[in-house]
Specification:
By secondary structure, the protein is an alpha/beta fold. The chain has two domains: 6-110 and 302-321, ATPase, nucleotide binding domain (Nucleotidyltransferase, domain 5, 2-Layer Sandwich); 123-298, ATPase, nucleotide binding domain (Nucleotidyltransferase, domain 5, 2-Layer Sandwich). The protein has helices spanning 41-59, 93-101, 110-121, 182-186, 188-201, 206-212, 219-227, 231-255, 270-284, 289-292, 304-317, and strands at residues 6-12, 16-23, 28-35, 64-69, 72-74, 79-82, 105-109, 130-135, 139-145, 148-149, 259-263, 294-297. The strands form three sheets. The protein has a five-stranded mixed β-sheet, sandwiched between helices. It has a five-stranded mixed β-sheet with strand order 10-9-8-11-12, sandwiched between helices. Strands 5-6 form a two-stranded antiparallel sheet. The model has no long low-confidence stretch (mean pLDDT 92). The protein binds zinc ion. Residues 162, 172, 176, 178, 181, 183 line the site of zinc ion (ZN).
Length: 329
């Protein structure tokens, strides 16, 4: 019987910051979330400290912190190197947090920790070759090869959202110097932009009427309308799902995964995105890869980040106590 551990998992996304208390069986005991401060590095860190101060005061003593951040991370050094959608670069986040809270801290890329949660305790149970794409503000990627999270030379591998699908396409977001990245076409940001453009161009559509009524027109409304059967919203998300499929086709050719898991807050309409993506993969990817891969929605939804960050902390810091794969709950 392992001793009871309390781990705080942090999901620092490009838009949203979630903090949760997780037990050593990876049950989420408490959870708070709010917007991320993106005006400056100081504001971003202050908001993170404020949330963590509140959470640790409320949760009582904790054994460790696990952090997933929407950044390129030097995993061994626990350092944020660069972020596309956050104002953080060259920040020794692990050292800052472990000094402030007096507990061991593990920091990794947010898509990596979500990937770990799905691989060990979600959709990926039973596989050894798995890819995860998280559709959020941007698109994050996680690679599991031969049963291990693949991190690359400096821990920054898996930026699958920055795969170019149109060499002369629009500029990518934030700190990415490239053009035509998958993230430009299939992220939450892209869905929001498509919804707003359509609302303006077609004032008689459901999106147009929502805009006229002063409702917030963005990805969540687009997904809700599509899931409700609104034909225009379905058409927009089908188009986005096909773009996603273009990216997945390349991923399938390169990695030959058994499973591609699609998660993140903007994957709410997976029921529309995934069939479109599967169709493009079936048409465009090579054999035998395309015949072997399954493309499925994530099981942990918006909690994958918090859960994965806590799971990473347990696996890295208390490896003998980590719940067996699939053995959570
Ligand atoms: Zn890019």
């Amino acid at each position: 019987m392992s001793p009871a551990r309390s781990i705080v998992g942090v999901d620092l996304g490009g838009t949203k910051l979630a903090v949760g208390l997780v037990d050593d069986n990876l049950g989420i005991l408490a959870r708070t979330s709010g917007p991320v401060a993106t005006e400056s590095p100081e504001a971003c860190l202050d908001e993170l400290y404020r949330r963590l101060d509140e959470a640790t005061a409320e949760y009582g003593p904790v054994d460790a912190l696990g952090v997933g951040t929407a950044s390129m991370v030097d995993f061994r050094a626990g350092r944020v190197v660069l972020s596309t959608n956050l104002p953080l670069r060259d920040v020794s986040l692990r050292d800052l947090l472990s000094e402030r809270y007096g507990v061991p801290v593990v920091v990794d890329n947010d898509a990596n920790v979500a990937c770990l949660a799905e691989f060990r305790y979600g959709a990926g149970i039973g596989t050894s070759e798995m890819i995860m794409l998280t559709l959020g503000t941007g698109i994050g990627g996680g690679i599991v090869a031969n049963g291990q999270l693949y991190r690359g030379a400096s821990g920054a591998a898996g930026e699958l959202g920055h795969m170019v699908i149109d060499y002369d396409g629009p500029r990518c977001q934030g700190a990415c110097p490239n053009r035509g990245c998958l993230e430009v076409y299939a992220s939450g940001q892209a869905m929001g932009q498509a919804a707003r453009d359509t609302a303006r161009e077609q004032p008689d559509s459901a999106l147009g009427r929502a805009l006229a009524a002063g409702d917030e027109v963005g990805g969540p409304l687009l997904s809700a309308l599509a899931l409700d059967g609104d034909p225009l919203a379905v058409a927009i998300l089908t188009d986005i799902g096909e773009k996603l499929g273009l990216g997945i086709a390349s991923i399938v050719n390169i990695f030959n995964p058994e499973l591609v898991v699609i998660g993140g807050g903007a994957a709410q309409a997976a029921a529309i995105l995934l069939p479109a993506a599967r169709r493009v993969v079936a048409e465009r990817a090579l054999r035998p890869q395309r015949d072997e891969v399954r493309i499925v929605p994530a099981q942990h939804g918006v909690d994958a980040g918090v859960l994965g960050a806590a799971a990473l902390a347990i696996i890295e810091l208390f490896p003998d106590e980590a719940p067996a794969r699939g053995g959570r709950g």
